[in-house]
């Protein structure tokens, strides 16, 4: 192995850590694209586009190793949850979409790797 190159364990840890950030990228893209799939009010449309773009940017920052990216995604997930509950909406589909994406963003923001979401196996 050349001097200065990361060892296999560091590469594996990076790939495992990437999973949760990549899920957040996909959630941000879904949120951005959802106004094109069904009716949103103008405020909901702007909120979906803005939060979707910010989520993708924060997730990419998280992929680069910045912990602030995870915190921003957690805050954006919380904002989506609160806005879904308390701001006016056009369709229940948009309510549920924003609520579920908000919870998923918060979950993956507080999870450093996808393997943490698995339950522990019982020793038999």
Q: How would you describe this protein?
A:
- This protein is mostly helical and 124 residues long.
- The chain has one domain.
- It has helices spanning 8-33, 42-63, 67-86, 92-109.
- α1 (8-33) runs antiparallel to α2, α1 packs antiparallel against α4 and α2 packs antiparallel against α3.
- The protein is elongated and about 50 Å long.
Which terms summarize this structure?
elongated, mainly alpha, 124 residues, single chain, 0% strand
Taking the sheet with the most strands, its summary is:
none
Instruction: Give average pLDDT, whole number.
Output: 83
DSSP strand content: under 5%
Number of helices: 4
Please give the oligomerization state of what you see.
single chain
Please state the CA-atom Rg, rounded to the nearest Å: 17 Å
Shape: elongated
Please give the alpha-carbon distance between the first and last residues: 39 Å
Give the helix level as a range of percent: 55-70%
Structural class: mainly alpha
Question: How many beta-strand elements?
Answer: 0
Count of domain modules: 1
> Would you identify the regions where 5 or more consecutive residues have pLDDT less than 50?
none
Q: SSE order, as H and E? A: HHHH
Topology:
Blueprint: H1 8-33, H2 42-63, H3 67-86, H4 92-109
Helix pairs in contact: 1-2, 1-4, 2-3, 3-4
Short structural description:
The protein is an all-alpha fold and 124 residues long.
């Amino acid at each position: 192995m050349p001097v200065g190159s990361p060892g296999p364990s560091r590469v594996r840890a990076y790939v495992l850590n990437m999973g949760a950030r990549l899920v957040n990228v996909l959630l941000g893209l879904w949120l951005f694209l959802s106004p094109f799939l069904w009716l949103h009010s103008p405020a909901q449309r702007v909120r979906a586009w803005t939060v979707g773009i910010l989520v993708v940017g924060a997730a990419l920052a998280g992929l680069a190793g910045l912990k602030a990216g995870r915190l921003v995604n957690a805050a954006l997930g919380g904002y989506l949850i609160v806005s879904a509950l308390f701001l006016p909406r056009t369709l229940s589909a948009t309510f549920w979409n924003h609520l579920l994406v908000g919870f998923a963003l918060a979950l993956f923001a507080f999870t450093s790797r996808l393997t943490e979401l698995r339950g522990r196996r019982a020793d038999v």
